[in-house]
Amino acid sequence: MNKPFIKQEKIRFKHIDYAGIVFYPRFLEMLNDIVEDWFEEALERPFSKMHDTNGIPTVDLKVQFKNAARLGEVLTKSLWVKELKSSAVICGFQFVNENQQMVLEGEVTLVNVTIAEDRNSIKSEPFNEEIKNKIMNYKL
């Protein structure tokens, strides 16, 4: 049975707004962090190397904010594959607090692209078989 990719993140002062809760754009940064960690740790495709010639931009994002997250809380972030296409992967995600309350959930579509040498254009590119096999380890 496949499992999601899981990371924890402590809510820091930099994440919160004047009301003392996570400012919503910080959640999107946290989502990008887990995507970046997944590519580096699970898929062995770190952004630091990938972005020389390729990228994995977000082309669609659906988010539902369920509960506030506050300074000092630790969130458990989970990411899994819902569907793998030729050059795109649709992932589900959720962030849960220490009381097992859903804080955030949604879906993100990432597209594998190649970047032109002059960095002026990008185009989608199919995933190779090795990456597809690694991605499928997280299909639920």
Layout: helices, strands, pairs:
Layout: E1 5-10, H1 24-42, H2 47-50, E2 54-55, E3 58-65, E4 74-84, E5 88-96, E6 102-111, E7 113-115, E8 122-124, H3 129-136
Antiparallel strand pairs: 1-4, 2-7, 3-6, 4-5, 5-6, 7-8
What does this structure look like?
- By secondary structure, the chain is α+β, with helices and mostly antiparallel strands.
- 22% of the residues lie in helices and 37% in strands.
- The chain has three helices and eight strands, in the order βααβββββββα.
- The protein has helices spanning 24-42, 47-50, 129-136, and strands at residues 5-10, 54-55, 58-65, 74-84, 88-96, 102-111, 113-115, 122-124.
- A five-stranded antiparallel sheet has the order 1-4-5-6-3.
- Strand 4 and strand 5 (88-96) form a beta hairpin.
- It starts with a strand and ends with a helix.
Main sheet attributes: strand count, strand direction, barrel closure: 5 strands, antiparallel
What's the arrangement of strands in the largest beta sheet? 1-4-5-6-3
Separation, N- and C-terminal Cα atoms: 8 Å
Class by SSE composition: alpha+beta
Order of helices and strands: EHHEEEEEEEH
**Large-scale geometry:** globular
Query: Which regions contain 5 or more consecutive residues with pLDDT less than 50?
Result: none
Report the β-strand fraction as a percent range. Answer: 35-45%
Could you write a compact summary of the structure shown?
The protein has helices spanning 24-42, 47-50, 129-136; strands at residues 5-10, 54-55, 58-65, 74-84, 88-96, 102-111, 113-115, 122-124. With 140 residues, it is an alpha+beta fold.
